[in-house]
Input
Amino acid sequence: MSLKTFPKGGVHPEENKLSANAAIEIIEPQEKGLYAIPVSQHIGAPAKVVVKKNDVVKVGTILAQSGGFVSANIHSSVSGKVKKIDVITDSSGYKRNAVIIQADGEDTWEESINRTEELLPNVTVTADEIKKKVSEFGIVGLGGATFPTHVKLAVPDGEKAEYLMLNGVECEPYLTSDHRMMLEKGEEIMIGIKILMKALDVSKAMIGIENNKLDAIANMEKIASNYEGITVHPLKVQYPQGGEKQLISALIGKEVPSGKLPIHVGCVVQNVGTAFAVYEAIQKNKPMLERVVTLTGKSVSKPGNYMVRMGTPIEQLVAKSGGIPEDTGKLISGGPMMGKSIASTEVPVTKGTSGVLIMKQDESRRGDINPCIRCAKCVSVCPAGLEPFLLMTFGEKRLWDRAEQEDTMDCIECGSCSFVCPSDRPLLDYIRLDKSKVIEDRRKNSSK
Amino acid sequence: MKLTLSPSPHIHSGNSMTNVMWTVVIAMVPALLVSVYFFGLGALLVTAVAVSASVFFEWAITKYLLEQESTLQDGSAIITGLLLAFNLPSNLPLHIIIIGALVAIGIGKMSFGGLGQNPFNPALVGRVFLLISFPVQMTSWPLPKVLNFGLDATTGATPLGVMGEGLRNGESATDIMNQLPSMLDMATGAIGGSLGEVSAIALIIGGLYMLWKKVITWHIPVSMLVSAFVLSAILYKINPDLYACPGFHMLTGGMLLGAIFMATDMVTSPMTPKGQIFFGVGIGLLTIVIRTWGAYPEGVSFAILLMNGWTPLINRYMKPKRFGK
Output
């Protein structure tokens, strides 16, 4: 049987899932360690700080209140004292406000949080309570885009959710955090799915997993057989299948219209890691204060997966994996296709840090740019059906309106075009420029 | 520790222009070998002169006229030279080859801005220029003579030439076919013609190699050959005395060389599968039209150049289907 996948474009980079067999290890907070917790760990408005210098906080104490509907609460991930509120550089390279906490080493948790390992399968709360708690506990999508989960659960008037889709695709090379979660926390994820289904009032949930994670597929299938309405779907390995719209078209063959959200075709997509976080929030009153991070790279002596508190400097993970290799040329937060290169190991882990990839010097440089030979590889791999070579030309010539006419805003920035270009042309760089200029122009026009 | 900061993606497929160019060169080797086998050292000499002249002109033009850095490392001048040689008779006087290379590289390619900018296939620009300027030399074809290492060869007409001439004199196509080399000879390459176009089998091997290496896709060759086959089959069905059979059209002249190596030139062909099929069908039909009713016995070069001219328009109107639209 041929496996399902999305209909258009895509590439298949070397998978390099070096840490696939490394069980999740817990990294505890260090005494006296400084934990910088940014107030902006999600898409949307930054949260507003509600603590001040010298306040004593526990694990789970709220540090910053959601700054709007599309925003999320931020909680302390360590116990200790607020040392200062300062500006730091986060993994996106932007300066952000952050609450900096000096850990006391006691690791005292808020009493309301259930810290036991006990599995709690009975969902007793109502749909409204679920949505309220998800929002209260600062749950955001853990796939990398960090979209606040409560926003996705608020189905707009006139729309009806039919399917909940769980993204266990993990199509980025190297990354294995979702893979390990599905192997080790399958039961919890499944209860999380049940909770999400209740919140959305849907009877069908589909878990999409790429076929390079056979053990995870088997485990999830076994557990799902005890749950009504939850099915597991192995998918052909093809990047960028983890893109929301690609996953939907792979699973049910529907294309989300350009400029619309998945709910327009009756779908809500959540990452499997998010389902786990939802389980912990609803059943154990636990805010989103830790996540699984893959630390990997060809030169890393011990690639691994770590359960880490938010705010932990990447340094600590690197130390766990055998230290920074000598010939390191690039550090990436996220995967090699869509991750962001970071400038130092002091950058803290945040809700969107799915992995840290260490690249060698010789892997870190791009090739020299050559002329476009119109080979059309970029066109054939574009999952959005765009013409990257043309959008780059418009970018070079500063013809932003032409780029907009050619649907540059539909680019999902997966990078497949730059990945395949035999002339090493920086296609995606120019498309990003197009997009930012189009947004700038739109803003100018609307303010007139 | 010096860290590089750059936007994603951070990895590359490893596919490079040099790979693409070398794949094409390797794909041309079987046809070149067959050519040396049937036409002797002449074939090798023409090829060597065409390639070195093309490389020289590109180097000289970038250095002295454009005053830019050398672009030879991309390998495209070698391919233009090879393709030009494939479209020439193996006994062509050397100075004509050099003129052809100058036109191909200078006018066909560099005058438009070099690699990637030229609207027309440079090798074909060179060939058509020579065909019009030196009609006698360009159509005196050495006849195949196995492993003839001298440079002397008897010349004669190509099967297409014989067919065209015969039909004009009122002979029946079926009778002319009986005087021509067998279909088997046409498949192996034991016929007169341009040095790279004679062996159907060698060309197909090269084409399969490029398909396997994903340097070309099936769309252009298949649509071109199928449309040419269908149109010639219809004509043959109408009157087999006036029109040659489709198999003859497939195996003679530049049909396969054109379909596999010339029409698939990335720079001058459309970007989408849809557009490529439109382009291929256009070439296939035009080829048969020119061969049947045109002044020249062969029409592939003209058909490809005409469709090259359509490519920007095809790219404009046959866009990929946008996701979600």
Q: What stands out?
A: Chain A has a mean pLDDT of 93. The CA atoms of residues 332 and 341 of chain A lie 4 Å apart.
